[in-house]
Amino acid sequence: MNYLNFDIEKAKDTSKELNILLADYHLYYQKIRNYHWNIVGRSFFDLHVKFEEMYDDAAIKIDEIAERILTLRYQPTSNYSDYLKLSNLKESKSELSDTDMVKNLIDDHGTILSQMSKVVKTAGECEDEGTIDLIGAYIRELETTTWMLDAWRMNTEETRKAI
Known about the structure:
mainly alpha, 71% helix, 0% strand, globular
């Protein structure tokens, strides 16, 4: 049954890229939990709350990505050992400064955004508008979160570029 109105076989590459994104999000989720649990110092109140907001959002995306893979009639990866092999991200130690935690997350955002671009590209090749729409919204949201984290770590002397 092909209820998606496109060649399911062509969605195989999209599902593969989505599984990599799923692995990325699992490692990202756990990294944020790690930082949420281990943040200390003057930034505790700000970042403890922000990190919780971020991992709650990541948990929703994990479920949506897995369900999109299932919608495409493929199997989502569901073992941490496989996530560690597939993911573009690396685990992080717990004993980091607030600025190092934020820097690591910003770096991970760049990696995740790159993977999202791969998903959009492969989805476009098989005219999979549902995946393009889903991931397009994720790109916009992650770019906004990245901007906010970057603004948090900026010095007050730093300014935006004038138009």
